[in-house]
Amino acid sequence: MSTNYATKRVGQAVFTFFVTVSLSFFLYQAMPGGPVEALKNMILSQQSTSAGTVDLERINRLVNLYTNLEPDAPLYVQYFQYWASLLFEQDLGRSIYQNEDVTALIFQRVPWSMFISVYALVIGYAGSIFIGALMAFKEKSRFDSVSSVLMIVLNSIPYYIVGVVLILFVAIRWGWFPYGGRAASSLTPGFSPEYLWSIAYHAALPVFSMSILGLGGALTMRGNSVRVLGEDYLRVAELRGLRSSRIATQYVGRNAILPMYTQFMIGIAGVLSSSVIVEQIFSYPGVGLLLYQAIQVRDYPLLMGGLIIFTTVTIVGILVADLTYGFIDPRISAGGDDA
Amino acid sequence: MSGDARRSVGAAPDAADAPNDRRDTVFEVRGLDVAFEMSRGRSRVVRDADIDIYREETLGIVGESGSGKSMLASSLLNAVVEPGVTTGDVTYYPPDGGDPVSVLDLSESELNRFRWEEVAMVFQGAMSSFNPVTKVRTHFRETLQDHERNIPAGMDRARDLLESLYLDPDRVLDSYPHELSGGMKQRALIALSLILEPEVLVMDEPTAALDLLMQRSIVSLLRELQAEYDLTLVFITHDLPLLTKLADRITVMYAFNMIETGSTDEILYNASHPYTRALLAATPDLNVAVDEMHAIEGSKPDPVESIRGCSYHPRCPLADDDCRSEEPSMFTVESGHEVACYHYEQAAEAIPLRGDANSGRGGGTDE
Question: What positions does the domain ABC transporter occupy (chain B) (predicted)?
């Protein structure tokens, strides 16, 4: 039963990955002046200005090197070639502009993006769980109504506005935090306390503005907690004379967090994709900024690579959520009986 | 050691000197009121309740839905849900002549100790009384832990309890609540309620969601448990026939008031309040033709509006000016049988139970 479930989930994940990659491949190809065409034109124009002699053979070889695609082969062949190099060589092609392997480029940047994303997500969700629980315990109080309004307002303001406002006031006007970069350039990278501190210092604003994204969970948490507070088992727990700390964590907390768990895992995707904009605002050199730059110069191999990485992270996040949900809610592993 | 001995020696003459009823009483409820403030006024859902609960008896509290029975039960543990306000006196007398406890004056931490150690409660929503994400074992363990009991000894007791309720201890303890059937959950909850050896077990419609067979078997299990563990049972239900198999005494509630209290036999064969009689006459019975069963005309009063006089007078065939102007106090029919009705002597004549006395009994006992 449960292995069946796991196989099914993994199968779904693989299928989703396949569909996403295929769709983006064909969409990119279908764009007027798709990657191969664009690249060919680019090299052509470069060569016509510099050397003058046009060697189509050489251009095709170059294009092949950059995109992993044979420019003259039919589309389906190109498609299979792309998959083959992706699966067997973990090769995503070469960046057109940076003249480096896409895989290398992305994996240089991924840790930095993960660093701010994970912190933003954890801080955002921890904050929202705490605030939501507090709001539920003080239901209908002044604190509850004020923070409800505040949460709705924060939820409605896009996080990048928060980022821009933060830069304007905290970074530029008051100069409390840097407004760009991931560490002071004067420091040599390494495990020195100064360098680590500088990393944290530079990450503070992006993390903060992205964690606003997770704060929307506070209202969900509040709703969940209010529901749990009305459950029979909570009343019985009180009648049993259990310690209130146990009731708050094991009874209210545990049951109210359950629905947030999946949301959290899916949130990983949201935070990663929002990093494209946040990193641009804070000129934070992560995958997001890399992709943003790739979009601007139509660096297709890099774009495809970034998309595949984001897709993978999202699918893995949801898969992990699905597979582990049974551990935190025993009712799921029994087949979703909601008694 | 010696201190203990001296205390018990000292306690013996005390207990002997104490008035008899004091020693036998485990709960003394006086002038109990439960009220909720609502936007349209004050809703008094228990009004001026007086009752004594005796040690090791089974007291049945019967009444229709919304008559205040559950609130009365909750107030025994000072557990009326917010924003309900409980006033009056609820005094608990511990066994072996300990100091009486005024339940409504207990602090939060005293209350936490009082609950489940002295008085446990199994209530209506038994199906969802367990935390869905933890195993049944955890429920026993955390209860023992938070009451600072010895856990291995307590878990042994849990096994004994589950076994005496005809459950397989290992299977039940290792299950999550959703893996148990309704009847198993109910019995596991009863075992959980007895884990700290309470003196009193309050059961608020514990059988409401169970099928008839399971109801009867739980009732017989309760009787066994009561004998085994010297329990005082307070059993709340709207199922009068069920109660007659279990209770030593029955209190009838109508519209937030206690209107009649007496031994089960007295209530069955000598019911003196028109409402009690009407209730008995309304009890469904397969042996009686449908047209002989009588529903009670009218509907029960609203908890916010206060009725002048007896709360039953709008529905009572015996009502006169006295009933309409002043609320009757308790009259003693016989020793231990009290009724709040001016016309208790005429009630038997005015509201006959169905057929003869024997079929009146049919609603109650089927032995």
Answer: 29-280
